Amino acid sequence: MPETRTTPPTPPAPGTTGPRDGLKRNGIGTGGIAFLVISAAAPLTVMAGVAPVALASGGIGAPAGYLLAGIVLAVFAVGFMAMTRHAKAAGGFYTYIALSMGRTAGLASAVLAIVSYNCLQIGVYGLFAVQTQAMLHVLFGLDVPWPAVALAAVAAVWFLGYRGIDVGAKVLGVLLVAETAILALMGAGILAGGGAGGITAGSFAPDAVFNPGVLAILGICFAAFMGFESTVLYRREARDPDRSVPRATFIAVGFMSVFYAFIVWTAVQAYGDAGAVAAAGDLGEGMFFATIAEYVGPWAEAAMYVLIVTSVYASQLAFHNAINRYVYMLAQDGVLPAFLGRTHPKYKSPHRAGQLQTLHAGAVIAICAAAGADPHQQLLIWVDTPGIFGIVGLQGIVAVAALRYFRRHPGAGVHPLVRPLTMAAAVLLFAVVVLIALNIELLTFAGPFTNTIIIAVAPLVFLGGLLAARWLKRRRPATYSRIGSFETHDA
């Protein structure tokens, strides 16, 4: 039976962060947290860059796929947020799973979360390079090598992460409003112009929604929400976290599900129910650019080229912040070297963890460049996809952890509906993992051997985390006893 933490938190070990060396308190509110997690999902990027694939493969019912993904994640968030009053540390999945399922599962989850978020963040540098190259070529006629663009982005992400959570949230807020506005402008232009042949609701008809193609693209739809669950990582820096963290979580998942469905539906209207799938297949990533040029004007197309670059940058910064906080918490608990658990004396950012993540990202980009890898196919898609498996799988494990916690603590004070909703979320999330695996070629466009390796990464990493935890229990029991224990010392 896995151990469950019921004892008070262990005091900080020597060399870990003390009261003067913690994260910035009261540095961010509900809006700032929501901006961080929605920015991680990069709405403009997943719409302009990925939604055409969803349309081409899933048919005109693709908008319903985004709604279905949002509903599943909202159900998951019910149990996830019900635990926020009991898991007080800023360790995200790590804290929740350790609290309910024990230190071994908690550490394995932390390792998987760090690897998964790194896959998502570093892979997106390939997308940043491709989109920036396209923008510079279309608008200025410049051709810049993709590694130079990607490494410049690494430096820019490090700089804002170094400056602290409040500065990053303000920048992300501005960028998020801009990218959301350009998509909304496109949608409004399509509706005002009456679409290709009048506005219809065919995307939400039963035959379109229950088309097998919609189930096949659920992996793409869930990938559009990556990062929304990281709201809990900012608990120690949030104002009134018991209220702001749940609010930001439900705002994020609610906004993204409705907005994504609306934008993809308007894209269908732009070409008509009969022509949208063919247009998505023919135009590919250029579909949204061609659409906004036709329905709004060439100036809007130029603006979209610029804003998709800032959208990708915002996503990278948000994931960078999430990774740093996982590393920071593991260092606080003594699992990682203590210097990674120190914060900047002025900005209160986990700058040491940020420096490590920056060096790691730069090294991966340099290796890919030296190997002649394609920035879109190899760096973006092949590196990102294991991260999608890892995060959705961790969401399922967290749902199981919440069920276990509520069963062991009947006095936790949760609404009677929380338990059945959380059980439904666990079943649905693990089903999504299976669906993604069965339809992985829609994400990777790779062969069976490559796809097998990609699918195997997340379970192998989790297994490695379990083995590391058992080793710590035998060889470093004092460190093992601190896993998941750090809660209130970063004042």
TrEMBL record:
<feature type="transmembrane region" description="Helical">
    <location>
        <begin position="452"/>
        <end position="472"/>
    </location>
</feature>
<keyword id="KW-1133">Transmembrane helix</keyword>
<feature type="transmembrane region" description="Helical">
    <location>
        <begin position="105"/>
        <end position="128"/>
    </location>
</feature>
<feature type="transmembrane region" description="Helical">
    <location>
        <begin position="33"/>
        <end position="58"/>
    </location>
</feature>
<dbReference type="Pfam" id="PF13520">
    <property type="entry name" value="AA_permease_2"/>
</dbReference>
<protein>
    <submittedName>
        <fullName>APC family permease</fullName>
    </submittedName>
</protein>
<dbReference type="InterPro" id="IPR050367">
    <property type="entry name" value="APC_superfamily"/>
</dbReference>
<feature type="transmembrane region" description="Helical">
    <location>
        <begin position="379"/>
        <end position="406"/>
    </location>
</feature>
<feature type="transmembrane region" description="Helical">
    <location>
        <begin position="64"/>
        <end position="84"/>
    </location>
</feature>
<feature type="region of interest" description="Disordered">
    <location>
        <begin position="1"/>
        <end position="23"/>
    </location>
</feature>
<keyword id="KW-0812">Transmembrane</keyword>
<feature type="transmembrane region" description="Helical">
    <location>
        <begin position="248"/>
        <end position="268"/>
    </location>
</feature>
<dbReference type="InterPro" id="IPR002293">
    <property type="entry name" value="AA/rel_permease1"/>
</dbReference>
<feature type="transmembrane region" description="Helical">
    <location>
        <begin position="418"/>
        <end position="440"/>
    </location>
</feature>
<feature type="transmembrane region" description="Helical">
    <location>
        <begin position="208"/>
        <end position="228"/>
    </location>
</feature>
<feature type="transmembrane region" description="Helical">
    <location>
        <begin position="172"/>
        <end position="196"/>
    </location>
</feature>
<feature type="transmembrane region" description="Helical">
    <location>
        <begin position="134"/>
        <end position="160"/>
    </location>
</feature>
<keyword id="KW-0472">Membrane</keyword>
<keyword id="KW-1003">Cell membrane</keyword>
